[in-house]
Every structure is written in structure tokens, then in C-alpha cells.
Write a structure and sequence with these properties.
CATH topology of the largest domain in chain A: Rossmann fold
Oligomer: homodimer
Largest sheet of chain A: 6 strands, mixed
CATH architecture of the largest domain in chain A: 3-Layer(aba) Sandwich
Strand order of the largest sheet of chain A: 1-2-10-7-8-9
Number of helices of chain A: 14
Shape of chain A: globular
Number of domains of chain A: 2
Helix content of chain A: 40-55%
Radius of gyration of chain A: 18 Å
Distance between the termini of chain A: 45 Å
Order of helices and strands of chain A: HEHEHHEHEHEHEHEHEHHEHHEH
Structural class of chain A: alpha/beta
Largest interface: A-B, 37 and 38 residues
CATH class of the largest domain in chain A: Alpha Beta
């Protein structure tokens, strides 16, 4: 896993994935007490960065592999990213999703032409189900522990380096909402090469801080629970076998924020930046806004990873913090 | 008023105004029955295209003029655009706003350092108030009937031409939410030069269709009422003396959509594109989605002009049409 793979992924996704904007607002800066740059992957195709990794891997498959189809297991964003990338390659997709995923994610995945198989997040093991369904024919697109997927997510980091330089930001903490660590490790690898003064820091919700604890312990630690968070997009059992060594080598200390701060950050993104974020997509922004004492420097970069939120959850954020 | 002025404005705003994304979604295409490209000026600084025109004019002022300050009258988006452009130039700004403007617009304008003067939209004449306050010292930044402002808004058209070409769209109706016609005329001038197969068409809400009626009559017609619309951003007494001849020369027939369709379009933008639009910023998208029978061609471009909406109004849109 290295920068060359990310550069190659950037060539494959060019003209297919969107170069998402880096958003700023003087109002957001004032709340945070420093400059905030928001890399807005909620505006990526399918509403999250996951399309990058999906396209990165699907675009390397042979015609035979495409014809046989792909399979993925996902809480919803990887599902849509893979489904759309597969559809654009003319490949059938089977997606294994938790039954408690946001309705919009399940519906969108189906609407993108994928066959959706639901499972119970608390009692069933999605890896096992995925492996069984995959058999020998379907190509499994893992959500994070797959070099081609990490390389695709890492293209976000190439853009962050360029866009931060345009805004004269050379040194900053780069906060990334972190599940299995595919995006975080990809960005860390990209920035190690392109913007070495940046410090990538994973952000997780309270109660699901496996990455922060793993980094502290120097070895992989698991979450005690796997459901019950509004930040569904970034809840995974533990960091990946491929991603964790990268995180350990390149990342700063993990940040952990209360879920309520994610709802507050969603309301700020609505009012000040005009983007829709889901709770798990607003975790890094929440850290930038409300946990600045744990951040270094005059500027901070937060990655807004996704915006696939059901209307009632968004309305809750606005009702509580919208004025 | 010509393309050279728009090209010059593009040089002045480069690195200051944001090059906003052109968003797409297969789900949106499906509703519209054709490809939809959404030029998303809600993601512009201050949440609307108005920053372009504000910067375009303020950046031409002399040091003495900047020191004396600027004045503008606006329902809120021009207010914020001028206030922020003035602030970034170190110039004091006085903004005359209707008392019934969305709270977020009034608050943001004040927070951007401007002195805000409120007036009653139904009984007072904002032009008269503005002229009186301006006196001989302050530079008046008109919202649309000012060549330097039209030139700034027209830079949106330069970007539309480039971004549409990248997506292989050469010929399309370009739907623009239209108040006084500054943005619409600017885009029309830019596209006349850069993408002559495009047809710019103003879009307005039912009951406030002065531009559509003026185009039909071949002469300026006024609105009968000036308040009572949720599309506050695009309610003006009548097309401008400078903008109307341009609209008459270059634009296709105006489109008129019910306000309720704007709320529906806001919910679609939330779910499918992850952007926050205000009712008057969603009018063109509403026409693309729900009035396709009045549109020509395989693709349509809609300009999403602004996203400065109070939380309760946005929640209304989601409650009605969010699932």
C-alpha cells in the first residue's frame, strides 16, 4: 500500500468521481476559534466518499469479473458507492446491509440497481454472510481492508493537499470520520507524500472509539457494541488488518466526540455551509467546532464524509440546534 | 454591457469567489425525465451568487470610496454578498433590508459587520430609503441594475459553459431563478459568447412573474404585490432598465412555478444532492423537475441561486416532501 497506488487510482477515477469543494465560512471559523476548511465529500456521487473506493476497485476488474458481478457489505454508504460504480460498469451488484441502516441508504442502493440482502447487525456477522454469498464467482469489494479501495479513498487526500495549498494552509490537523480506517489511512498516505506537515487524526463518536483506543494501545482493540449509534456510517467492529498499521504509523491521537455534538455540527453545516451532513459525516466537523482544545494550529481541516441522512434525523438536528 | 466586462470581472473575482460545483444525480434525472445539471451557487460564499456581483463592484472602488463605505438594499442575499465583499476590502457597509426577510439573512448580514436598516416591504420604497441614506458619500451597490454587478453575476455563466462542456452538454435550456434579472442577464451574455446553443430562461414563482409577463409583452411589466412569497430572494418590483433589454434580446420564454413545487424541489436537493436550497433558490430546479413539458432537449441546466433559509421553513419542506 503506497502513494503510487493512490496516484494510479486518481487516474482511474478522473472524470468519474467528483472533485469535491473545500468549503469555508467566517461564521464557522468564529465558532471553532481558528480557520476551518471542510472537505465536502457529502457532495461526492452517491452522497459520500465511498464512490471513490468503489470506482477504484471496480474499474480494475476484467470483463469476465464484471459480468459475474460484485458483492459488498456495508451500512449504506459503501453500498451505494459500489452499486453506482458497478452500474456504470454494467456489472450486477449484490449488497449485504444491516436491517437498521437509514431507510434512504437502503432505498438508494436498490434504486441504483443492486440486489440488497438485509441482516441483523447485533446478532449476525456480515463478513460471514458476505463470504457465503460471494462464493467463487462474485468479486468481493471490501469496505476498507482492501488496497484498491484504500487507494480510491486516498484520492481525497490528494485533493486536500492541493486545495489546502490554494488556501495557503500548509500545516494543520486533518480530522477524518473513521470507521474501519480506509479513508483515514488513504488520506494519511496521500498527505505523507503531498503535504507532510499535516497531521491526520481519526474522529469517532463516544462509545465506538475502537480506533482511538487501538492507537493508544498500539494494537487493535474492538468495540463492545456494534449498533445503537446515530453515526451508523462509521461504526465498524475494529480497525482493519491492513488499515491499522498505516494509521499507527502515520496518524496523530484519535478524537472522540459525543453524538449530540454531531447533531449540532449538522445544524451549523446547514446554516453556514449549505450542505447536508449525516451524523457520522459530521463527526470531524463537530471535533473542529467543539473540541478545539485538543487540536493544534491556526487552521484545521475536517473531512465531511457523507450526507445520507433520513429527513426525520435531519429535522431533529434542526429542531434542537437550528436557530 | 458586454462579454468583456464579464471576463474582466472573472479576473477580479478569481481566488475570491468560489468556483461552485455542477451537481448531478441519477435520481434527479429520473424525476425530470432528462439529464439535470445543477449549478450550485448555494455553495458560493455567503450562500448565494450575490457575492460575485458584490465583489465585482467593490473591487473596482478607489481607496477613498472604500474608506467612505458602501450601501446596498436587499432582501438578504445581496445584503450578505455586499457585506462580505466590503468586509474583505476593509470598507464599512450599510444595508437596507425588508423587515420580513428571513431571520438568518438579517443576522448574517449584521454578523458580517454591516449596519442593517430595516424597512416595511409593503409600504416603504427601498430605493428611496437607499438613495436618502447614501447621500453623496456612500457608494450605492445596486442589486441588479448596475453593469459591474451584472458582470460579476455573469461569471456564473462562464463557469456553466465550461462545466457543461466537461459533461458533454452543448445544447440545453438554462433555467435561472429571476428577480431583477442581474444574474439572468449576466449568464445570458456569457453564454451568448461561450455556449451559443444554450437558451437561458428565467424562472419565477406564481404571482410574482413580472419577468415572464414582461418578456411576453415586449415591455417592462410590474408585479402587483411585493410581499407574501416564500421565494423572498427573487421578488422584485419589475425587471431592471439595464437588465430587461438584455433579457428581451437573449432569453427564451419565462417559466412560472407554484411555490409548493419549490418546497418539493428543496426536499429533492436535500435527499439527492445534499445541498440546502432556499425556496427562491429552488425555483429553477422545481421547473426542471416538475415542468419538463415546457423545456426542450435531452438535458437541462438549473441554477440553484441560494441556500439562506431559516430552519423552520426547511423543516416544512422536509415534513411535506422529505420521504
Amino acid at each position: 500500500m503506497n502513494i503510487d497506488m493512490i496516484n494510479e487510482a486518481a487516474i482511474r477515477i478522473k472524470g468519474h468521481a467528483r472533485r469535491t469543494p473545500m468549503l469555508t465560512s467566517p461564521f464557522v471559523d468564529e465558532i471553532a476559534g481558528r480557520r476551518v476548511l471542510l472537505k465536502c465529500e457529502a457532495l461526492q456521487h452517491t452522497g459520500s466518499f465511498k464512490f471513490r473506493g468503489g470506482w477504484s476497485m471496480v474499474s480494475t476488474l476484467t470483463p469476465q469479473q464484471l459480468k459475474a458481478g460484485v458483492i459488498a457489505f456495508s451500512s449504506g454508504n459503501h453500498a451505494q458507492g459500489v452499486a453506482y460504480a458497478a452500474k456504470m460498469h454494467g456489472a450486477p451488484a449484490t449488497i449485504v446491509m444491516p436491517a437498521d441502516a437509514p431507510k434512504i441508504k437502503i432505498e438508494n442502493t436498490r434504486a441504483l440497481g443492486a440486489k440488497v440482502v438485509l441482516y441483523d447487525r447485533a446478532t449476525e456477522d456480515r463478513d460471514e454472510i458476505g463470504a457465503r454469498l460471494a462464493g467463487n464467482e462474485l468479486t468481493l469489494i471490501k469496505p476498507y481492508d482492501e488496497p484498491l479501495v484504500i487507494a480510491g479513498q486516498g484520492t481525497t487526500g490528494l485533493e486536500i493537499a492541493e486545495q489546502a495549498a490554494e488556501l495557503d494552509v500548509e500545516k494543520a490537523d486533518v480530522l477524518v470520520n473513521c470507521g474501519g480506517g480506509g479513508l483515514t489511512s488513504g488520506i494519511a498516505l496521500a498527505l505523507e507524500e503531498k503535504a507532510p506537515k499535516m497531521c491526520v487524526r481519526p474522529v469517532e463518536p463516544v462509545g465506538f472509539d475502537d480506533v482511538a483506543r487501538s492507537l493508544k494501545a498500539g494494537e487493535i482493540k474492538a468495540n463492545e457494541q456494534l449498533s445503537g449509534s446515530i453515526c451508523d456510517a462509521i461504526i465498524t467492529p475494529q480497525p482493519g488488518d491492513i488499515t491499522f498499521p498505516i494509521l499507527k504509523h502515520l496518524c496523530g491521537e484519535g478524537l472522540v466526540v459525543p453524538e449530540e455534538d454531531c447533531l449540532r455540527a449538522m445544524a451549523v453545516a446547514f446554516a453556514r455551509l449549505k450542505v447536508v451532513l449525516e451524523p457520522g459525516g459530521a463527526t470531524a466537523l463537530a471535533a473542529a467546532l467543539y473540541h478545539g482544545d485538543k487540536i493544534q494550529g491556526d487552521a484545521v481541516i475536517a473531512v465531511a464524509t457523507g450526507g445520507n441522512v433520513d429527513a426525520p434525523m435531519f429535522q431533529t438536528a434542526l429542531s434542537k440546534y437550528g436557530s
